[in-house]
Amino acid sequence: MLRTVVCVSGGGTNLQAILDAVKSGQVTNTEIIAVISNNAGAYALTRAEENGIPGMLLSPKDYPDRESYHAAFMKKMRELSPDLIVLAGFLVRIPKEMTTEFEGKIINIHPSLIPSFCGVGYYGLKVHEAVLARGVKITGATVHFVDAGMDEGPIIAQKAVRVEEDDTPEILQRRVMEEAEWILLPQAIDDIANNRLTVQNGYVRKG
User: 131 forms bridges with which residues in the sheet?
Assistant: First the structure.
């Protein structure tokens, strides 16, 4: 059983997609053991409560400095000892130490086709604003392993989504979630839980 912790900053729609996939049997051999948020008002914590999953608040605002926050974050992760950490719209940079200690056990969903529109400053609605400002015709989402870089880890899966002429950032964000994020993330978790993925020389191989 893949003991999984999901980290979320906001509403938790990707978390809900994971929970639904586990319930339906689309994702197998997986147990969500905790949901962590940096935001006390995150609806993701309500989703966790409604599903009988421990929800935990770890906010940088509650610590005197980032070093103290990172130490608390690492302490909690060591206590939970997950097999997989899923960053599902988590807008706080995780401790660098975590990428070493949990190497190969952290994945992230990003709302663009990496390496486009990723890295520092590209998160949430800002990604979709940048996509529309550049005038690209195809965007999408990417699931990748997390390393010490920003959106630089080995890519697990990607899915393209068409950009329509009358899109707003909000409309495009919703389409990318529905057509890509909510599909890719559960699939990636199921592949990991069932040992279908390996990383060789920085590339993810399936099978």
Answer: none
